[in-house]
Amino acid sequence: MKAVTWQGHRKVSVESVPDPRIEEPTDAVIKVTSTGICGSDLHLYEVLGAYMSSGDVLGHESIGVVEEVGSAVSELVPGDRVVIPFQISCGHCFMCDQGLTTQCETTQVREYGSGAALFGYSKLYGQIPGGQAEYLRVPRADATHVSVPHGPDDARYLYLSDVLPTAWQAVEYAAVPDGGSVTVLGLGPIGDMACRIAAYRGYRVIGVDRVPERLVRVAARGIECIDLTTLDRPLGAIIRDVTGGRGTDSVIDAVGMEAHGSPLAALAQRSSSLLPSAVARKVNDTVGIDRLTAFDTAIDVVRRGGTISLVGVYGGMVDPVPMRILFDKQIQLRMGQANVKRWIGDLLPLLGDDDPLGVESFATHRLPLASAPDAYRMFQQKTDGAVKIVLDPTTEP
Hints:
- It is a single chain.
- The protein is α/β, with parallel strands linked by helices.
- The chain has 13 helices and 17 strands.
- Strand 16 (about 365-370), helix 13 and strand 17 form a beta-alpha-beta unit.
- Helix 4 packs across helix 5, helix 4 (about 165-175) crosses helix 12 and helix 7 (about 235-240) runs parallel beside helix 10 (about 295-300).
């Protein structure tokens, strides 16, 4: 089959790789009909290559049709249409019972001290072949799927794999009070969708970014937006001016480890990405540092006693966190990978014909799988208005 493979720093290619097969009785194999490129994939493309191997199949946002199931699979049969959550979970351990499928005790990657195994996401998370491919093997398939109706259009359901539950959890974790306010830092796919969900739930939303097309896209939904490139004073001061001098009740950081405005950390990240993998892993595991501009901004923007929800991926080991300010402002922090299955019941009713979140038109680009190298480059460089790119393994270029 054809699949998108990691080949090195800022290099992916579409290669022929062996077709997946049933390896365990609990496996299923699906034919992928649509698969998204996630902002998290760009971290592998840019700074987390030390944990990758040449030829690793990328991708963790997939929808498709079941081709084959193992002998122990009872919830699926060939022909079923399914969305595959980005994490692999058993559905019955202590953590899964708590709704924390990203911490599944059955699939935790204990070698690296990591949570549940993820599709297409490096040695840190199990090195499981991902879904940017024609076919995908799904371990623990009874728990690692969401059944959806058959239909001609994948757009309505594809985002249940990651974008929708990640954005929903980001808003949940932000703990915005009724009628309250939230600032969303970063208007990529997750930040954009978090704005839509927060606005749908009746909150005052202020979206912040520096990319014109992303600001226009969010503003078109009636959401307040601030362009970072036009400011003549700190963002926190501006937001306090429009919130009674306090700041918003909550802040969602949808940027993460590769924020703009951290030149020294950016240099360290770029330098480590060019080291031999064994050396780079040692560096990252012991003295890894993130670009913390977005997090520091969140601390400044949020009101005293407010909540910061971290949804952008962070991976640093010695990040200099301003504990005095966090303590003095009595800020609450919540963070982590989205527990996809936990939020499906909240999200499915929003995927009806009225489409209040605009999922049908959420993708800015839909391209053949063979266009993946150009798509990654476009997304990473934020060109051509790229916010959400979906790859179609079923069409020729």
